[in-house]
Amino acid sequence: MKRICVFAGSNLGSNPEYTTAAQDLGKAIAQNGFELVYGGSKVGLMGEVANQVLAHGGKAIGVMPTGLFRGEIVHTGLTELIQVKDMHERKATMGNLADAYIALPGGYGTFEELFEVISWAQLGIHKKPIGVFNIAGYYSPLIEMIDHAIRGGFVQEVHKELLVSASDSQTLLKKLAEFRTPVFGLKWKQFSE
Question: Which top-level enzyme class is recorded in the Swiss-Prot or TrEMBL entry (predicted)?
Fold first, then answer.
């Protein structure tokens, strides 16, 4: 595991713990010798992670569609900024560069990115570890929703293992490094009965 793709809010959120933990994650990424791949913004939790990676001697690679430069203010101090044409190319580029994924608190965009990489792992498109940084219980409702989907018969119990969770950065990085893709059969139960 060399590069970690971080999905995070382009806002700071309402709880100061989000900012503090995002900064701690950036520091931990750099101190553990990993590189950051992320959306390229200098604002929000995205920017906080990148700033700490850079402040602690790490490498930060941003990937941003040219049309977002006004809304998400581009970080001009990155190790590398890759300009792409749209959001689809952004996600594909980040995925190609990454060896693992972490989702920090965020909104619809963060959720969409997280669920795409989980879906792809479930289908066997990639075998990269995926983690949620459960700062102040932010992702606890999502984890409960996954349990609800398991109880409802839409997610197999073994697929829950595709997602690791922790409330501190060092534990989360350790879980990602130790991750082994679970072994599972067909996703579709009616074909396996």
Answer: hydrolase
